Each structure stands twice: as structure tokens, then as C-alpha cells.
Amino acid sequence: MIRVGVVGLGMMGLTHLDAYRRSDKAKVVAICDADETRLSGKVSAAGNIEGQAMSSVAEMTDVSRHTDIFELIGNSEIDLVDVCLPTDLHVKFSCEVLNAGQHLMIEKPLARTAADAQQILAASQSAKGNAFVGHCMRFWPGWTWLREAIQEGRYGKVLGAKFHRLVNHPGGPFYSDGARSGGAALDLHIHDTDFVQFCFGMPKAVTSFGYCNITSEPDHIISHYQYDDVPLVIAEGSWAMTDGYVFNMGFTVNFENATAVYDSASSAPLKLFENGVDPKEVSVADVMGYDLEIEYMLSCIEEGKRPSTVTVQDALNTLRIVEAEVASLRAGKTVDV
Fold first, then answer.
1. CATH topology of domain 138-290+319-336
2. Which residues pair with 82 in a beta bridge?
3. Scanning 6, 138, 277, 331, which has its CA 20 to 30 A from the CA of 110?
4. 81 with 45: CB under 8 angstroms?
5. Which H/E stretch holds residue 280?
6. What is the second-level CATH architecture of the domain 2-134?
7. Coil, helix or strand for 182?
8. 256 exposed, middle or buried (CB, 10 Å; 0-12, 13-18, 19+)?
9. CA angle at residue 241 from 236 to 242, to 5 degrees?
């Protein structure tokens, strides 16, 4: 049984707690948050997807509670430290966990900048423990189906792919501070940037458009990723929608012989259209990618192997693409990656 300590009890910390409590491979033995109202469960963050961040911290009677992260880092009774802290704190505490010889789960993005991420990569390369980055779309049902279809050439070559992720602004001091959060480009849109990389590899260049109207960083961004072998790849991300706008993510991918559409708002989110065949719903497992990524990470630890579905290098590469997107948006021109 892998003994877990979770640091940061906001939306993602609670979401990870949900996954650990459903797993038979792990036991949460410690939780940590500098905010004592969150630590006690008197105040609880909400998710933006149905079924997310459901854990009740107040009901957890078999864990130790801490306001100091260094009571978990280096603790011989904790095998894995799951860091769900604000992005600008990732580099410091990720390196501390890895240098202490523990396994690390770090929520995406890997760091605030690619330069910071490079430090985490260096620490992970000499670390005793595994480092895992929470790029959950690489595990999300429906999206994994798409990636497999692309890799297999199941419906021919991809002619065009469009991804989107839209929601209203979550509010709060961290998300409102572009210098810390990186705006929607780094905190939200990065999911789709990473999935684009997962499907198609590193793009040659990016051309991005968008605006800042809530933070100092892009709050709404649309990017075109340039590849030699795929004519059109586009992703849109925004947290600038009007309050009350329900979170929506999806894709439309046009192959030579089919079109696949995913709409998170639909009860049957994944549909496939083929020539000469009635449109059909593709069965999608009723589980979130968070559970699947954490099960994968725990299996890697149990089996003594390094993660390969998502690596620290992958997460660093995704950050480099996002930084190129932001540079393109600001400069009004195409930027090489």
C-alpha cells in the first residue's frame, strides 16, 4: 500500500483525494494546507466538472493534518507527496520532494515557466522516486480513443483537428493574478496544448490570437499549430466566458474517412461519422481521467518503473509550446517552437 500525503486542498487537491480514496493501491495518511479552514473541512473548494472535488476533508478521521509542508517532505511514513499548490510554488516544492527521495505527483502545469520546469526535470533525473505530472487528458476516456485512432491510422490521415475548453473565470486571488497563474493560456488551455503534442508531437511553429481582460496574461487564446503532415490543428481555451457559462470541452477531428466529435455537454459525448454509415455513438467509460492517471502512477510505483505515458520532459515541452503561443499572441506573428 502506497502511503500518500496531499498538499493543497483546493479543487485539484480534493479531486486527487477522491481518486486515492477509490484506489486499492494507496492510502492517504496525511493532508496539508496553510489555510486551517480548508484543512479542517469547514471551507471546501468546488470543481468545474460534475463529480469533481467531492471529497469531504472533515470526514477524514484517519489522517494527520498539517499546515507545514515540511512535515510531509522527507517524512519516512509518506511514500508519495502529491503537490496541488499554486503554479508559482511548483518548482520549489517539487525539487524538495524529489531531493528527499519521495515519489512526486505534481499537478499541471509543471511550473510557471519552462526555465523553472527545467529545474524539476534535472531533479527528477537524479531522484530515487518517480516524478509524475498531472496531464489528465492523456488518460481521459474519449480522448484516449481519439489518440489511438490517430496513431493507428484507423480512419486515414488527419486532415483537420480542433480542440476547445471554455468556462467562466473561477475567481479568487490566485486565478486573478496573471503573474502567478499564467492566465487561461497556462492554467486551462495547456490541457489541449499538451494533448496536441501527445497526438502529433512538437509543432514547428505556432500562430496565436487572443486577449487579456481579467488578468495580465491571455484569458482567451486560439492557436494554430504548424505540422508538415497535418494541414490544420487548432485549439481554443478561455476562462473569460460570462458568469453562469457551463464548462465545456471538446474536439472535432476530421480524418480522410471519418469525422469524430466530442462534446462534454452531451450525455453521449463521443460520436463518429463515416461515409455510407449512420452516425454512431462511441462508448466512453464513465470515469474521469484523474482517476486513471493516478491509477497509472500508482501502478508505476508498485512495479518499480518510470512513467512513459506522460513524462517530466513531455510536460516541459508542453510549457515551451504554451510560451511560444503567448509570445505569438503578444507579437502578432508566428513563433517557432
1. Dihydrodipicolinate Reductase; domain 2 (3.30.360)
2. 6, 105
3. 331
4. no
5. strand 277-281
6. 3-Layer(aba) Sandwich (3.40)
7. coil
8. exposed
9. 170
Q: What is the pLDDT of residues 259-274, one digit of tens each?
A: 999 999 999 999 999 9
Report d(CA 82, CA 125) in Å as an integer. 18
Contacting residues for 136 by C-beta, under 8 A, at least 6 apart = 108, 191, 288, 289, 290, 292, 293
Residue 97 one-letter amino acid:
V
- Quick: pLDDT tens for 194-233: 999 999 999 999 999 999 999 999 999 999 999 999 999 9
Query: For 242, which DSSP code?
Result: P
* pTM over 0.70, yes/no: yes
- C-alpha 324/C-alpha 71 separation (Å) is 38
pLDDT of 61 reads 87
Find cell 467531492 and name the residue. Answer: 54
Per-residue cell: 223: 492557436
Query: Which one-letter DSSP state was computed for residue 112?
Result: S
Per-residue pLDDT of 224-244, as tens digits, reads 999 999 999 999 999 999 999
Cell of 316: 516541459
Fold match, 2-134 / 138-290+319-336: no
DSSP state of 14: H
